[in-house]
Amino acid sequence: MARPRPTKPSRGQTILSTPDPELAVPPAEPEEESIAALFARLIGHAERFVRAELKLYRATLFDRLTGARTAVISLLTAFLLAQSAIIALLVGLIVILRQPLGAVGATAAVVGGALVVAIVLVQFALVKLRKATEIEDKK
Prior knowledge:
By secondary structure, the protein is mainly α. The protein has one helix at 35-133. It contains one helix and no strands. The radius of gyration is 34 Å and the shape is elongated.
């Protein structure tokens, strides 16, 4: 059984070589097409172009999300390690203050101090958040 011969484009035609077979469309002879056919072909080309651009943007987005995922995991790990260090510091303060204040007094002092720091940080964050979300009237 003979293999079919590849056809060459006729004179005036070019065949686009692209990786996506959807995009390879040989243009027809200009004198053979009506205006309506030309517009239909233009719309088809524009649609394929938009689809190719969307595929490109989607691939770029997923590539960036993969990189961002690694960064988020690293930040979360750093946050957990910092939280563990703060807990160890608070436990160390309780152990140090246990001698002069007793176990209950040391615990109360460290918990009270930590709560004061937390309240100050929350108030600071709320002021910044209000300022960032404030809607200014244009006059």
